[in-house]
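Pasting as-is:
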Amino acid sequence: MSDLKRYFPMIRERKEVLADIHKNEKLLDMFHFWTEEQQEEFLNFCTGVKGPRVLYDAFFKEVMNPESAPERLNEFLSLILGTQVKIHMVLPNDSTRLADESSLLITDIIVELKDGSLANVEIQKIGYKFPGQRSACYSADLLLRQYKRVRSEKRKKFSYRNIKSVYNIVLFESSPEEFQKFPNHYIHRSEQKSDTGIKIELLQKYVFIPIDIFKKTQQNKNVTGKLNAWLMFFSAEEPEEIVKLIQAYPQFKPMYEEIYEMFRNMEEIMGFFSKELRELDRNTVQLMIDEMQEELEQKKKEAEQVKQKLEQKKEEAEQVKQELEQQKIRAGKLEERERQKSIQLEEALRRIAELEKR
């Protein structure tokens, strides 16, 4: 029996799951379409051999739904932002968001807080290139969206005082290389500040959470603190980690129960899993495009450097050639002067000889 089954009796045995799949032709076709590794991964999730990946879009939105269970996201955001927050309303994803970029996200939840601030919670499975630039674009998009909405609501009473902070909170399952240079830090908070200390309210704020680095820092450690407990909930895959978590913080047990109830609907859960695999493929392709683009830019830069060096060598060669020409001219002039001196010497000797004869 799986360790998790003791805590979550709704977890089914492997043979039950396979029986459900084989009696439905559509599900069986879907199952056979997956690789053996993907089939095994799915069965391990269903049977509690491995814990569910809470950051999967369907699971995260189920347990962190700000409409049905706002207290959960309230607590997580309060811990992340370091101040008590309360979700006022959930905003739909606006079509003005950069269309191509939206495909890079696993999850994207936008909420308005009680003070009017906006928080955008994103989950990225793969750490893409240029995380700062991407987040700045998302944040600018969110800020502009708030501006348009508030201006429309306030009309003539509108003031820029009405525009509140926007928080872009990004969780990376596999973080970009920039974060790997800080192996002991798994929460990075960033905002704009003046170098003079002048107080100007610049509204764009960011929190980056590399989950993979969090997992490395927490290996063989007990769960300490509410924020770490949330991050463990998002990242734990081994049954013993999950057991340790729910023993220390029982509030997470009902969330796991909700996820395991989802596993009982085989058609729905296989559809979710297939969607995650498709998103992973798309994201992997996008990452490869980014890497190829970066490599192309690097090659272009190297080619430009080689070109500049060749131009420099050409200039140096031209200078050497000019110097040689000048030296040749000087040598010619010197040779001519020596020849003239030789002629003059011969003439002088001839005259001496004539004088001696006389």
